[in-house]
Amino acid sequence: MWNPVAPEVVENPFPFWAWLREEAPVWEVPDAGYFTISRYSDLVEVSRDSETFSSELLAVVQRDDSGRPRLQKTDLVRRPQARVLGVADGEMHARHRRAVGRTFSPSRMERMSNLALEIAERCVADFSDGSEIDAIEALAIPIPLEFMTRLLGLPLEDRPRLQAWTDHAMCMAGGLATAEELGQSGAETLRFQAYLEERFEEELAHPGQEVMGDLARAVRAGENTVGGLERWEAVAVLFQLVVGGIETTVGLIGAAVQHAAQTPAAWSKLRESPESIAAFVEEAVRLDGPATGNLRRTTRDTELGGVRLPQGSTVALLWGSANRDATEFSEPDRFILERSNIKGHLGFGLGKHFCLGAALARMETRVALQALVRVKERVTLAVDTETLRHKPNLSIRRLQSLPIALG
Ligand code: HEM
User: Fold this and answer.
1) Does 183 have pLDDT greater than 50?
2) Which of 1, 46, 133, 326 is 20 to 30 A from 103, comparing alpha carbons?
3) Is the CB of 289 under 6 A from ligand 1?
4) CB count, 10 Å around CB of 222?
5) What is the pLDDT of residues 122-132, one digit of tens each?
C-alpha cells in the first residue's frame, strides 16, 4: 500500500500518482482523514464547482509519529480573519481578488519584465565561464525575492528576513516538520505577521505606488466600497502574496533550469530560438511544477468518480498528477515543446482560485532563462540527475540545490 508521505514518495511522487490515476482516482487515504483526487477531468470538475468544493479551510496534511499521513484541521477558519483570498469563498474572495487583481495582470507583468530581466542579468553577470554554481542560490532565489520585495514596496534590505520568514511559513504548511521546527516556525511566522502589520501602518499614513500603496488606498476607501478592505484583510493578503509568490517561483525557475541543463538538445534549441522559451516554461510547469496539491472541503454530500464524499470531507487536488494524465497529454512523462495544448496544464490551478501570480511566475522564469541563454553557450548539470533532492515539503516541490556547470 502506498504511503503518500514516505520520504521516497515525496521526493519522487510520479509513480504513486500514476498508480492513483489508474487504480484509485478518488482515494480515501486509509486512516488519514482526507481523499486524493488525481485525474485531470476530476480536478477540472472540482475546481469549477467552488460551491460544493469550498476553499474555506485551514488544514494541512502532516506526517504523524508513525510516519503516516494525517489531516490536521484547525477551527481558525471559523474566524473571519482566517478567510482570506486563497482560503476564502464567494464575495469575500472576490473582494480580495479585486484589490490586487490588476497589479498582477499579464499586461502589467509584461510591462515590468525589464525589471526582472535587469535582476536576472545582474545575477548572470557574476557567473564566469568554466565555473560551477548553485542555480537555486545564485539565480532562482534572487529573482523572485528582489522582484516581489520591490513590487510590494517593502525595503530591499529586508530581503534576508523575508526569505527566512518565507521558509518558516513553508515549513508550517509543508507537513513534514518536527514538533521543535514547528514551534520555531510558528513563533517566526507571528513575527513576520507583526512586521507586515507595522510596515502596513506606515504605508497607510503615506500610500506609495506599489502593491502596499494599492492596499492602503483600498483600506482608506473602506470595507464596503468596491474593492475596499479592512486593515487585517490587507495584511493577510500581503502575507499570502509573499509566502505564495516567492518559494513557488524559486521552484519553477529551478525546475526549468534543471530541464534545460540536463538535456543538451534543449539548451541548443533555447539558444537558437529564444521565442520557444515561453513554451519551455509551460512544459516545465506541467511536468515538474512546484504546486503539487491544494485542499478543498465539501459543503454537501456529493459523489465523484463513483465515490461518495460526505459533507465536510477534505479532498486534496493533485495538480501534479493531473498534469501527467495520459487522457489529456500524449506521452505525458516526456518534455515536448510542440504540444498543441501546452497551456492546458493545471499547474496554476483552475477556476476562481486560479493562481493570481501565474503571469508573474511565467515572466520571471522566462527572463531567468533568457538571461542565461543569452550569455552562456553551454549549461550542463554538474551532478547526476538522480542525486538532485527536493526540499522535504508536501505542498511545494522545489530543489534544495541545483549545481550547474557553465561553458
Ligand atoms: C510557479 C509559481 C507558482 C505556482 C506553480 C503557483 C500555483 C498556484 C496554484 C495551483 C494555485 C491555486 C490554489 C487553489 O486552487 O487552491 C495558486 C493560487 C494562488 N497563487 Fe500561485 N503559484 C505560483 C506563483 C505565484 C506568485 C508569484 C504569486 C504572487 C502573486 C502567487 C499567488 C497566489 C495566490 C494569492 C493564490 C490564491 C488565489 C485565489 O485564491 O484567488 N502565486 N497558485
Assistant:
1) yes
2) 46
3) yes
4) 10
5) 999 989 989 99
Grid coordinates of 39: 485525474
Q: Whose CA is nearest to atom 19 of ligand 1?
A: 355
The candidate with the shortest Cα–Cα distance to 267, out of 403, 404, 377, is 377
Position 160, amino acid: P
Residue 148 Cβ contacting ligand 1 at under 6 Å = no
Q: Cβ(396) to ligand 1 under 6 A?
A: no
300 touches 50 (CB < 8 A): no
Give the helix ranges, DSSP H, for 112-178: 113-125, 135, 142-152, 159-174
Question: Are 319 and 309 contacting, i.e. CB atoms less than 8 angstroms apart?
Answer: no
Decide if pLDDT at 294 tops 50: yes
Closest listed residue to residue 170, CA positions, set 11, 394, 364: 394
Distance CA 56, CA 169 (A): 19
Closest ligand 1 atom, residue 144 Cα = 27
| CA–CA separation, 20 and 384 (whole Å) | 29
> What is the mean pLDDT of the segment spanning 368-377?
94
- Rounded Cα distance between 126 and 122, Å, is 7
| Closest by CA position to 296, among listed 37, 5, 56, 23 | 56
Q: Is 254 in the pocket of ligand 1 (CB under 6 A)?
A: no
Q: Residue 317 is inside which H or E element, if any?
A: strand 314-317
Q: Is 252 in the pocket of ligand 1 (CB under 6 A)?
A: yes
Dist. CA 348 → ligand 1 center (Å)? 6
CB within 8 Å of 170: residues ≥ 6 apart: 243, 247, 391, 393, 396
- Report how far ligand 1's centroid is from the alpha carbon of 384 (Å): 31
CB 329 within 8 A of CB 321: no
What DSSP character marks residue 225? S
Q: Are 232 and 81 in contact (CB under 8 A)?
A: yes
Residue from 356, 360, 397 to probe ligand 1 pocket by mutation (most atoms less than 8 Å from CB): 356
Atom of ligand 1 lying closest to residue 350 CA:
15
Query: Hey, what's the cell of 318?
Result: 493533485
